[in-house]
Amino acid sequence: MDILTLNYVNLFLGIAASFLLILLYKQNKQLFLLYWFFASSCLWINSTIGIFSRSGFDLPYWLNPAIPNTCYMGIYLFLLAGLYEQTQRKFKVGWLLAIVILTYAINLTELAQASSANRLLLNLPISIVLNVMALRLLIRQKNRELRAVYICFSMAFLFNIIQLCSRYILFSLDLSGIFTQHSSQIMIGLGYFAITAFSLLTFGSCLYLVYRQQHIALQHIADRDALTGVFNRWLLNEKLQTELQRSQRLKQCCSLVMLDIDHFKQVNDLYGHVAGDRVIAHIAYVAQSELRGYDSIFRYGGEEFLICLPNTDSQAALHIAERIRIQVEQSCAIDCPQAKATVSVGVSTYTDGEPDWQHLITQADNALYQAKKQGRNQTQHYQHLVTQDL
Description:
Blueprint: H1 3-28, H2 31-54, H3 66-86, H4 93-106, H5 110-114, H6 116-139, H7 147-175, H8 181-223, H9 236-250, E1 254-261, H10 264-271, H11 273-289, E2 296-299, E3 304-310, H12 314-330, E4 343-350, H13 357-373, E5 379-381, H14 382-389
Parallel strand pairs: 4-5
Antiparallel strand pairs: 1-3, 1-4, 2-3
Helix pairs in contact: 1-2, 1-8, 2-3, 3-4, 3-6, 6-7, 7-8, 10-11, 11-12
Protein name: diguanylate cyclase
EC number: 2.7.7.65
Domain GGDEF: 252-384
């Protein structure tokens, strides 16, 4: 494939990516999409000038090759800026503009104007540094939900670093007279092909990222209770079964905590259903703030919550449950301070044997019933109640 054809391919890629990215930006208003739109715009600007140049138009040096080389750098810069924005890292736009201006100025120097090899030897080190920065940023990301996307980006930048370093070495040898002029032209052609492959990989990864974000958002809506943000009941079966099987396999305890708002009907009757919703949301917030990262909380019913505590014995579960109960008793919803509420709590613990999450919930529910029966605003553990009866 000749260089003119590759320019047409890159022009199509740049325009298509720009069109899609600007539409996505208008829909989502996420700044990193705007940065990537500018990156794709640099690609088609570069390709347009390249097509005019290869078609026999006599263009001034300040336009070609100074601007196309600056556009190449702009692709890497705007991709890097978008990654910084998407991963919520600090990025100064002033640095981006400074590097763009510096690149253009370098390409106007006498050394750069002497030969294409000189221009490549001046521009490639900056390109390599920007690609290494992007790869380093991607490797450090810990977001499991976007891990596949970051791997795609990483592979694109790794490929680009390898080809840029290889071309830099080969052009250095070319200056020493080892390669012929024909070999040099082949390397330039490979450079055009490399930017085509890199653009396909990176802009494909950009679109894949947007798809993953929307998928995660939809999954979050499907899995979470709209009022409180905790897991809804539809996930209960899957998550509890998984945790109990894991506890059986690792020979660990697993506890369930069920809490219910005391006299919740009175809250609705006295202060209205809006106040009742705020109380529910507040209690969910308090409970979440007392849990560990690997604990799970579900909205089990209208005013009931179920908490799964992996690797937690009965004493530790009672301690966590009591901590939640006390925090609820001592606090109130900020936007509805008059509607104070308390909770009754029931706890059950799996220790060994065949895991049965439904049976464990029944035990926690029975303990909750006893907590309400004995005066509310207290915590009871099912196993302790059974021991007392014996």
